[in-house]
């Protein structure tokens, strides 16, 4: 069979530890035999980030702006232990944070549903997609420890010479306290709203959004106001035509509604809410390793990745020569998402079809009972049907199913 041709390269961002190992096996077994794979390769492994003083991360984000589609492997975000382990000259920032800051996007996360892996919430019959605003708030916050009595103030000096000042707290007790300042930009909130509404029209799903505007009457209320304004002026008619709705409520109310719902909508979340809720949803839908993630920028660039980390614990076992049973589904879906998008943009239907077939082969493999340990532990399938396989066997089983459909 002739290999499927590509015209524009994908931006390939390699990563760390166990996911780097899986990355290579996925390429060797599931992609290179079938596609004339064109990528522009960036090694975001920690050693290369150290060597290039993290320039490679910036370069990979800029390449994404140039080509439009990237696929990223999980990477280590260094902490003190990693600085020691890798003998780093600095505690380099989170690559995802750097990339998101350059692309200014919204992260959409959706679970991959398969028969035999039932959500803990039994009424969730459709996936719930979390749209996480990937800019600002506590992630760009400034903080102070003020461990003595004193006055903390919030001050804004306008370019026009006006000044706004508010007392945050008069600390009177001897040990003082802590303070935090955070921001968001109206522009970023507006593009967050547009990304959500565009993605909703693309995927034909309603949008739900919530903040705590009753308590945060200026900060959170601005999110609410901007979403409503963008919806009313740019999307209302398109939503009506598509039979979709936009629904706003309070964050605590939405949590209750999400649990009672059947799924099938986009849940737009502020940055912190999205961070927390996406891990809760991933786990409640079955496994962190079954969650896809795509960063969509307002100017239409896409970066696909798995939602989980580098699976460090498994990597250490791998280094000891032991077999691991690491789930590669979300990483495979990062590749299929990117290949499908590349196919759409370059009008290569064969590439899109291949991506869909690889997804179907992956799901069939699990539904046939071949699964990694994380799924074997939670499946509702009859025990005699379940074959717990190692990382390589799982990918080879997918290859067999894929070849049968090509
Ligand atoms: P993690 O890599 O997501 O793994 C946490 C645990 O979840 C694993 O030990 C494993 O549980 C289970 N797990 C996650 N993915 C799995 C998979 N594909 N297959 C099977 N089990 C899976 O999180 P972490 O250990 O907290 O973080 C490790 C490194 O990843 C850190 O350096 C962190 O900075 C980085 N990280 C990167 C990203 C990213 O690049 N997007 C995101 C998060 C974390 P068991 O051990 O019980 O089997
Ligand atoms: Mg998180």
- Number of helices, counting only DSSP H or I runs of 4 residues or more: 14
SSE pattern, N- to C-terminal: EHEHHEHHEEEEEEHEHEHEHEEHHHEHEH
Termini distance?
9 Å
Give the strand content.
Answer: 15-25%
Sheet with most strands: 10 strands, mixed
Description:
By secondary structure, this protein is of the alpha/beta class. The chain has 14 helices and 16 strands. The strands form four sheets. It has a ten-stranded mixed sheet, with helices on both faces. A two-stranded antiparallel ribbon has the order 6-9. β13 (291-296) and β14 form a beta hairpin. α3 runs parallel beside α5 (95-103) and α11 runs antiparallel to α12 (349-367). The mean pLDDT is 95.
Explain briefly what this protein structure is.
The chain has helices at residues 17-31, 46-51, 55-67, 80-85, 95-103, 186-203, 219-242, 251-260, 271-284, 312-319, 329-346, 349-367, 373-376, 391-403; strands at residues 10-14, 39-43, 69-72, 106-111, 129-133, 142-146, 150-157, 163-171, 177-181, 206-211, 246-250, 265-269, 291-296, 302-306, 370-371, 387-388. The chain is of the alpha/beta class and 406 residues long.
